C-alpha cells in the first residue's frame, strides 16, 4: 500500500481528469484516507486545479465523484432525513461498473470484452449518450452515459423527482442484467452513488483510473495496457489470477508467494489432500467478540434465506458481503458481535456446528479458499457478488470489526466505516490446513 507521504507527493504533481464533467461544482467529491476513514468535501470544486490543492493536503488512497448533479452538492442530507429540505437533483449519470476479480491480465481482458459488448448493446437499445469510458485502475471498467430523456428532471417536487429517477434506473438495470451483462447491481440505480474519479490513483494497485477511447475498449488489452499510467511503486499486473495465499500477507498482498499443494508420491485410491486457507471469526484485540462468517448450505430454501436475512437486519449485523466460489455463497458481515450472542443466533439460523464451535472455543475457523496452483485458470476464484440487501446495513447498532474490515480490504472489497465505532485490530487470523 502506498504511504500517505507518497500519495501527497503524487497529488502534488498530478491533476485529476474533470474535462468530461459538464459542471464539476454540481457534484459531490469523496475520498478514502490511508487509515480507511472516509471524508466528504466540504466545498465545491469547479476545476481540476482547485481539487488538486485539496488532494495534495489530504493524501487520499482513493478519490470518487458523485454520479448525481445537485443544486447544492455540499452537506447533502440522507434520503431518510425527514427534517432537512430534500436536495434538488439536476442530473444523474447512467453508470455501469464491470469488475472481474482478481486483479490480473486474464480477468481484466474478460472485463474489457464484457464492457465492449455492453456499450454496443446500450447504443443499440437505449436513448443514452456516452460521456466517458474509463479503466478503473483495478479490476475493470466504468461506462458513464448521459440520459437524453430529461422528462423526469422536470418533476417539481425534489423527493418525487429523485424517486422517479431511481425507479427508471432500476428498470434499466433489470434490462441490462436480463441480457446477461455482469454489471455491479449496486451502482446504476443509486442516485447517491460515487464512482472512482479518472486521473486519480487506485490506492490498492497504484494504477491510475484512466479515461480510454472507444478504439481502446474495442482492441485487445495487450495492445494498449502498457500505456496505462501508474505510480512507480504500482503492483505488477500478473497474467494469472492471484493465489489465495496472498491473503496471508500483510502490507503488499501482491508480493510473490508460492502456494504448495501436498501431493502423494505413491499411487493410491485415497482422495488427494488439498491445502486450504482458513480465517477466524475472532475480532482480534477484543475479549469475546466475533464476526459473522458462514457458507450458505446448498439445501437452504429461499424462504430460509429470507428468514436469516430478516433476523440479521433486525440484529443490526449488516452489511453482509457475499462471495461466490464454485456456485457456493460465502457471507462476511464485518461487525464485532459478542460471542455468546453470535453462537446462539447462528445455531438458531441453521449453522448449528458453527454455533457449537463458537460456544466452545470463543470463535470458529472458516474455509476461505483452497490454494491455487501457479497454473490455475482463475475459474474457481472467490468472486465478490455484492451486498446482501435483505440483510440491511446495520445502522451503527454494532461496532465494526477492524479485523474483518481488513479481511474484506484484502479481498479488494473496501468498506465505508463512516463515524461508527470500530473494535479490534486490523489483523485477520489466518491458518493453512491440509484437508481431504
Which class do the helix and strand fractions yield? alpha+beta
Strand content: 15-25%
**What does the largest sheet look like?**
4 strands, antiparallel
General form: globular
CATH class of the largest domain, named Alpha Beta
Uncertain regions spanning at least 5 consecutive residues: 249-270, 371-380
Distance between the termini: 36 Å
| Spatial extent as radius of gyration | 22 Å
User: Largest sheet, order of strands side by side?
Assistant: 2-1-3-9
What is the third-level CATH name, the topology of the largest domain?
DNA primase, PRIM domain
Helix content: 25-40%
Give the number of DSSP strands. Answer: 19
Report on the structure:
With 436 residues, the protein is α+β, with helices and mostly antiparallel strands. It folds into two domains: 4-227, Alpha-Beta Complex (DNA primase, PRIM domain), CATH 3.90.920; 274-435, no CATH class. Helix content is 26%, strand content 22%. The protein has helices at 4-13, 48-58, 105-125, 158-178, 214-218, 302-315, 339-349, 352-361, 402-410; strands at residues 29-32, 38-40, 62-66, 68-70, 89-92, 94-99, 128-135, 140-147, 194-196, 210-211, 274-280, 289-295, 321-325, 328-338, 365-370, 383-387, 400-401, 422-423, 430-435. It has a four-stranded antiparallel β-sheet with strand order 2-1-3-9, with no helix packed on it. A four-stranded antiparallel β-sheet has the order 6-8-7-10, with helices on one face. The protein has a four-stranded antiparallel β-sheet with strand order 12-14-13-16. Helix 1 runs antiparallel to helix 2 (48-58) and helix 7 (339-349) packs antiparallel against helix 8. The radius of gyration is 22 Å and the shape is globular. The two termini are 36 Å apart. The model is unreliable at 249-270 and 371-380 (pLDDT under 50).
Amino acid at each position: 500500500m502506498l504511504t500517505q507521504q507518497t500519495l501527497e507527493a503524487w497529488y502534488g504533481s498530478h491533476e485529476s481528469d474533470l474535462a468530461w464533467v459538464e459542471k464539476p461544482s454540481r457534484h459531490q467529491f469523496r475520498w478514502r484516507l490511508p487509515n480507511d476513514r472516509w471524508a466528504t468535501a466540504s466545498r465545491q470544486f469547479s476545476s481540476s486545479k482547485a481539487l488538486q490543492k485539496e488532494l495534495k493536503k489530504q493524501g487520499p488512497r482513493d478519490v470518487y465523484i458523485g454520479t448525481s448533479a445537485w443544486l447544492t452538492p455540499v452537506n447533502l442530507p440522507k434520503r431518510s432525513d425527514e427534517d432537512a429540505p430534500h436536495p434538488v437533483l439536476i442530473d444523474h449519470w447512467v453508470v455501469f461498473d464491470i469488475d472481474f476479480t482478481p486483479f490480473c491480465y486474464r480477468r481484466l481482458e474478460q472485463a474489457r470484452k464484457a464492457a465492449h459488448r455492453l456499450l454496443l448493446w446500450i447504443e443499440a437499445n437505449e436513448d443514452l449518450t456516452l460521456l466517458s469510458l474509463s479503466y478503473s485502475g483495478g479490476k475493470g471498467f466504468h461506462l458513464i452515459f448521459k440520459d437524453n430523456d430529461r422528462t423526469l428532471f422536470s418533476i417539481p417536487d425534489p423527493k418525487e423527482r429523485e424517486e422517479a429517477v431511481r425507479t427508471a434506473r432500476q428498470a434499466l438495470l433489470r434490462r441490462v442484467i436480463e441480457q446477461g451483462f455482469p454489471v455491479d447491481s449496486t451502482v446504476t440505480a443509486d442516485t447517491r452513488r460515487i464512482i472512482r474519479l479518472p486521473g486519480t490513483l487506485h490506492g490498492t494497485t497504484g494504477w491510475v483510473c484512466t479515461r480510454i477511447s472507444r478504439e481502446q475498449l474495442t482492441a485487445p488489452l495487450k495492445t494498449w495496457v502498457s500505456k496505462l499510467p501508474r505510480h512507480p511503486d504500482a503492483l505488477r499486473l500478473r497474467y494469472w489470477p492471484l493465489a489465495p495465499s496472498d491473503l496471508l500477507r500483510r502490507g503488499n498482498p501482491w508480493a510473490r508467494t508460492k502456494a504448495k499443494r501436498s501431493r502423494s508420491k505413491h499411487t493410491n485410491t485415497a482422495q488427494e489432500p488439498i491445502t486450504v486457507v482458513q480465517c477466524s471469526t475472532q475480532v482480534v484485540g477484543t475479549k469475546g467478540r466475533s464476526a459473522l462468517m458462514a457458507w450458505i448450505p446448498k439445501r437452504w430454501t429461499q424462504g430460509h434465506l429470507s428468514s436469516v436475512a430478516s433476523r440479521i437486519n433486525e440484529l443490526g449485523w449488516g452489511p453482509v458481503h457475499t462471495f461466490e466460489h464454485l456456485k457456493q455463497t460465502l457471507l462476511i458481515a464485518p461487525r464485532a458481535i459478542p460471542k455468546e450472542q453470535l453462537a446462539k443466533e447462528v445455531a438458531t439460523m441453521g449453522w448449528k456446528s458453527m454455533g457449537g464451535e463458537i460456544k466452545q472455543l470463543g470463535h470458529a475457523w472458516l474455509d476461505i479458499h483452497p490454494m491455487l496452483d501457479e497454473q490455475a485458470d482463475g475459474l474457481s476464484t472467490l468472486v465478490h457478488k455484492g451486498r446482501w440487501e435483505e440483510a440491511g446495513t446495520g445502522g451503527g447498532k454494532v461496532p465494526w470489526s477492524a479485523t474483518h474490515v481488513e479481511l474484506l480490504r484484502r479481498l479488494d472489497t473496501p468498506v465505508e466505516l463512516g463515524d461508527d465505532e470500530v473494535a479490534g485490530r486490523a489483523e485477520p487470523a489466518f491458518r493453512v490446513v491440509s484437508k481431504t
